[in-house]
Every structure is written in structure tokens, then in C-alpha cells.
User: Which sequence fits this backbone?
């Protein structure tokens, strides 16, 4: 079990300062809170409603900036309507699924909103996925329509024959740079929508706040990604809670979004937050540390959407005299770690850090709307941080069989209270849904959602993120399933068994992938080059193990699960490990033996992972 941390390291919340800020914030945002609660209670407000309202209220205000493109709210809504009216003409209706394999670009926002106005469900496919993982996601939520971007076509085409598509499945192609023509069997979506009406479809009024808006894939602890159900109220709620209350954005702001839109961080904390305030979004195709500040100045962005690792990349860049002079005042995201929090704010002259913590599966959140440092924020939702046995990887239970809350300053497993199970929309897989629930936690009949995260109780309903537990770790801002990594390793020739887990690298956020492997052959005969290619073809880049440890055997628990506690503790410390360890160094495509020289460079942060 995790030991109690000394109070000086806890960043506890000062109670008097909390009461002062809490009272001020409540007075300032009382109107917004009342309006949001009324909207959610009526259950008639959808994402399409937000967009139509903005088009009416701010028709000439810039809504979207992308490269050399600018769309006003009126223009954006009109393009949404053309797509929506076209889809309706095809027979698409409320509840139908559409697979969306498109990277960041304005068309993504348009398609997502068009489907929302109909009440259709966009299955948002991670564009980094390849082969087995991509095939799985397309099969788990098969769409009546599949939309494939030009940049994703090769990955889709490679697994297309394995999808067993229905004869009436419609395939749409979304051109980008024009490097490839519209493939045979596909329809150019950008062309067929042009002549359709730009007026609001009547379907918007039939979509409720509680209706599904999208499927968002999360890495589970049991293998391949799970499709969590994302409802309209998540976007609508983010407009108010994140945009108006936490971020305090205005019509004059521009939110820069360099994160992928198939994740809720970009959807809710970036896009919805901006549109909730009538602000603009400035899209980037992807995060680029070298281009980041150039984009900020180009778009005159006053806010940006972040994950913690992104902030660390920015901090790792050489200091620039203009660091303090940028136009950004507010950042909204998750994962900014305490060790760089204050320094990051100071260096880049950031006034407000809208840190946020939640899960795609559930609408309960923490948000730093009181703008304290080094915290994921405050939650008015019922939650508990319970004592956790780190060695056994399970919550501690007392003599009566119930869990116990940690004391102030201590770390434990975060649970969300569910006054009714209906609050947990869950996954498309009912078994996966049930696995996330704890029953009879503090009393008979109660139900709690297992976050899978370790949190530190900071007091005043604030918590600090510590780490993820179990068979999922976080790397490159993605949750990685160790089961998925192990399955890919275990089918490789000459590998008998493997155990994957995350390990800490100095100067990085999250945990880097490491796998302990038992071979069926001698290490000298093992083909690392072929293994690297196998991993590249079957795993997203962020899930490929950085370290490989070769062992003669792997110890298992009584339930035949590999014990990873010692493996995680030992990590890649070659000073205390006799096993041979290999590493994939930054910007390298293959593995090399971990030497004392390389190890010391890693510990001294000389590599940029």
C-alpha cells in the first residue's frame, strides 16, 4: 500500500483562501450555473442547438481558423447544414452510426456537428491506429457510413477486406492535399454536399441532451480499445462549465487546439469551451513543438488546449526572450504535473490554468475553476479516495468487508459515487461496463465507479493526480493497454510469453512502455529488426515498448496473472538487474542494448523521449 507522504509535499488547499475564492466564483457565475442546470433538466438542448444559437447570435464572428481558412459562425453552420441535409437525403437517421476516420481539420468539426444535428452517432476512430487495433474499432461499432480522410486511406485500405462490410455500407472519401484520386468504390464527400440546402434541418429539435453524440475509444485494462458512449450533455455542459466558468472565455478569445479531436480533451476542453463563449477555435493538424508558438502568434490565440506532456515539451525548449510576451493568458486541459506547474506559468506568463480531470465514460469531473496551483481542481460530485494496496493492486477492505477513505494528504484510489447507475452511460460492451463498477463499497447496495487512478486528497474537495493503476499506463498523452501490447508480442515468432507495464523516465510525464520477455530461442539469434517492424505495424506509436527486458521466466500469481509489482520497481535499472535490457532510443526505429553509458544519459535527461 502507498505510504503516507509528508505534508510539505502535498500542495494542500488553504481553507480560508478556498472559502474566499469559492464565494467569489459562485457570485460571478451563478447565472451560468442556473442556466446550465435548467438546460440539462429540460433535456432538450443538444450540440446542434449550441451551433445554431451561435450562428444566430454571432453570424459574422470568426468561429474556425485553420491554416489559411477562416469560417464565421454563419458560414460554419451553413456547411454543417449542407452535410446534415445530404446525410438525411441518404436516409441517415437518429441512432445510426457513422465511422469517422479523419484527422484534425475543419471538415471534422463540420461532420461531427452534422451528425449531431441528425442524432446520428459518430464513431470517432483514432487516426494513429493501424491493422489489428484499427480493424477492431471499425468492427466494434460498424457504421452505415464510413468516412475516410485522404491521409488515412492507406491504413483503412489495408484492413478493409477484413471488415466484412455490408453491401449497403456507404464509403466516403475526404480529399485533402489531392495526392490520391477518389478511390474506386468511394464517393467524394466534399463534392456531393455542395449543392444541398444550407438551412437548419428540422431534426435538431428532436435531439435531446441525453442522446448519444459519439463513441469515443478508450484503452481498457482487458485488451483492445472500448467504445465509450459520449452524450450531447457532455459537450453542452463543457460549453458552460469549461468555457464560461473555468476558462472564463469571451467573444474576443481564440482557443488553439493542437490535440486530436477523437479525444475528449480536444472536444470538450478545447472546442466546446470555445464555442460555449462564442470564441474562435484555431486548429492544428497535430502538435508540433517547433511550430507551436508560431501558430499562437499567427492565430493570435489567447488560450490553448493542453495535455501535460505537451507542456513539458514546451518547457524543454531553450528559453526565448519572447516567452513572456505571448498573447496566451488561459490554458485548459489535463495532466500538467506539479513539478513544472508554477515554472510553466511564470515562464509563459499564464494567468489561469484550467486543469480538468474526468473520464470519457462518465460525466463527473474535477475542474480547477478556482485557479489553485498543482491540483486537478474541485468537484461537487460525490467521490471517495480509498485506501489501496499497491502490492496486491486492489482496494483495502476492513474487517467488515468495506473499503475505507484515506486521510487528508494521503493517496488512494479515486471512486466516483453513483446515486443511480443511469449516470454511468458506460460502454457499448455491457461486460466492460460492469467491470468498472464497485458494489457494496461503504454500505450494502451502494455503487461506485472505479476511476483506475491514484489521487492525493488535498482537502476542500480538491485532489491531485498521482498515477494510473493496474494494466493501463499513460504515455504520450494516451492510455496504453498492457494486454494489447502483450498480445502483439506473444504472437511474434520466438517469444514464449511477455509482460508489459509502464516505467518512469526522468523528465517525462506518464510511464514509458516496458516489456519483460521470455524467449523460445537464444537472445543472440533473436531478430530485433523484424520485431520492431512487427510492433510498428500492429501498435500505435505510443504503445510500442521503449524497453525490452529478457528473462528466463515470469512469476505468476495464484490466479495465473503475471506479477508486475517487482518488475515495475526494478524498471530498467541495469545496476540492480542482471537480465539483458534493450532500448528504442528517441528518433530510432530499432532496439539497441542498454549500456551503462546510455543508462546514465537517460537518468541525466540527455535524451528527449
Assistant:
Amino acid at each position: 500500500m502507498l505510504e503516507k507522504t509528508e505534508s510539505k509535499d502535498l500542495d494542500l488547499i488553504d481553507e480560508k483562501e478556498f472559502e474566499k475564492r469559492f464565494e467569489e466564483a459562485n457570485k460571478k457565475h451563478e447565472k451560468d450555473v442556473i442556466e446550465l442546470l435548467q438546460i440539462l433538466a429540460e433535456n432538450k438542448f443538444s450540440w446542434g442547438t449550441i451551433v445554431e444559437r451561435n450562428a444566430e447570435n454571432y453570424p459574422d464572428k470568426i468561429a474556425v481558423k485553420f491554416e489559411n481558412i477562416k469560417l464565421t459562425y454563419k458560414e460554419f453552420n451553413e456547411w454543417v447544414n449542407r452535410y446534415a441535409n445530404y446525410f438525411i437525403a441518404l436516409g441517415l437517421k437518429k441512432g445510426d452510426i457513422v465511422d469517422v476516420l479523419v484527422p484534425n481539420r475543419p471538415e471534422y468539426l463540420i461532420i461531427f456537428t452534422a451528425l449531431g444535428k441528425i442524432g446520428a452517432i459518430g464513431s470517432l476512430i483514432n487516426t494513429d491506429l493501424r491493422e489489428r487495433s484499427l480493424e477492431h474499432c471499425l468492427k466494434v461499432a460498424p457504421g452505415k457510413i464510413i468516412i475516410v480522410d485522404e491521409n488515412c486511406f492507406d491504413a483503412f485500405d489495408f484492413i478493409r477486406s477484413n471488415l466484412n462490410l455490408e453491401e449497403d455500407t456507404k464509403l466516403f472519401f475526404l480529399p485533402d492535399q489531392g495526392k490520391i484520386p477518389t478511390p474506386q468504390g468511394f464517393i467524394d464527400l466534399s463534392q456531393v454536399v455542395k449543392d444541398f440546402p444550407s438551412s437548419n434541418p428540422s431534426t435538431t429539435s428532436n435531439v435531446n441532451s441525453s442522446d448519444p453524440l459519439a463513441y469515443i475509444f478508450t484503452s481498457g485494462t482487458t485488451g483492445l480499445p472500448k467504445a465509450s458512449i459520449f452524450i450531447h450533455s457532455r459537450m453542452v455542459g463543457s460549453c458552460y462549465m469549461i468555457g464560461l466558468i473555468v476558462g472564463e472565455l469571451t467573444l474576443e478569445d481564440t482557443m488553439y487546439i493542437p490535440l486530436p479531436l477523437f479525444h475528449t480533451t480536444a472536444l470538450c476542453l478545447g472546442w466546446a469551451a470555445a464555442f460555449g463563449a462564442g470564441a474562435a477555435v484555431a486548429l492544428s493538424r497535430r502538435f508540433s513543438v517547433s511550430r507551436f508558438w508560431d501558430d499562437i502568434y499567427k492565430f493570435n490565440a489567447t488560450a490553448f488546449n493542453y495535455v501535460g506532456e505537451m507542456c513539458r515539451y514546451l518547457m524543454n525548449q531553450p528559453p526565448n526572450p519572447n516567452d513572456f510576451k505571448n498573447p496566451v493568458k488561459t490554458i485548459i486541459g489535463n495532466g500538467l504535473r506539479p513539478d513544472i506547474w508554477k515554472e510553466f506559468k511564470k515562464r509563459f506568463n499564464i494567468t489561469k490554468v484550467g486543469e480538468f480531470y474526468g473520464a470519457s465514460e462518465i460525466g463527473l469531473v474535477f475542474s480547477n475553476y478556482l485557479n489553485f496551483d498543482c491540483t486537478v481542481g474541485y468537484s461537487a460530485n460525490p467521490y471517495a479516495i480509498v485506501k489501496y494496496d499497491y502490492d496486491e493492486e486492489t482496494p483495502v477492505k476492513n474487517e467488515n468487508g468495506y473499503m475505507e477513505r484515506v486521510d487528508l494528504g494521503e493517496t488512494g484510489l479515486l471512486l466516483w459515487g453513483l446515486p443511480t447507475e443511469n449516470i454511468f452511460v458506460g460502454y457499448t460492451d455491457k461486460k466492460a461496463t460492469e467491470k468498472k463498477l464497485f458494489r457494496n463499497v461503504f454500505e450494502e447496495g451502494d455503487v461506485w465507479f472505479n476511476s483506475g487512478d491514484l489521487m492525493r486528497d488535498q482537502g476542500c474537495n480538491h485532489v491531485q493526480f498521482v498515477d494510473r493503476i493496474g494494466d493501463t499506463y499513460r504515455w504520450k498523452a494516451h492510455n496504453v493497454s498492457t494486454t494489447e501490447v502483450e498480445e502483439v508480442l506473444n504472437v511474434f515468432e520466438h517469444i514464449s510469453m511477455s509482460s508489459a507495464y509502464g516505467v518512469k523516465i526522468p523528465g517525462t510525464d506518464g510511464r514509458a512502455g516496458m516489456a519483460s520477455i521470455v524467449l523460445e530461442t537464444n537472445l543472440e539469434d533473436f531478430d530485433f529488426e523484424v520485431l520492431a517492424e512487427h510492433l510498428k505495424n500492429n501498435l500505435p506509436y505510443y504503445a510500442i515498448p521503449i524497453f525490452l527486458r529478457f528473462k528466463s521466466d515470469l512469476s505468476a500469481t495464484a490466479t495465473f496473472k503475471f506479477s508486475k509489482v517487482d518488475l515495475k520497481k526494478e524498471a530498467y535499472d541495469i545496476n540492480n538487474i542482471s537480465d539483458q535490457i534493450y532500448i528504442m532510443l528517441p528518433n530510432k526505429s530499432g532496439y539497441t542494448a542498454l549500456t551503462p553509458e546510455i543508462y546514465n544519459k537517460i537518468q541525466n535527461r540527455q535524451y528527449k523521449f
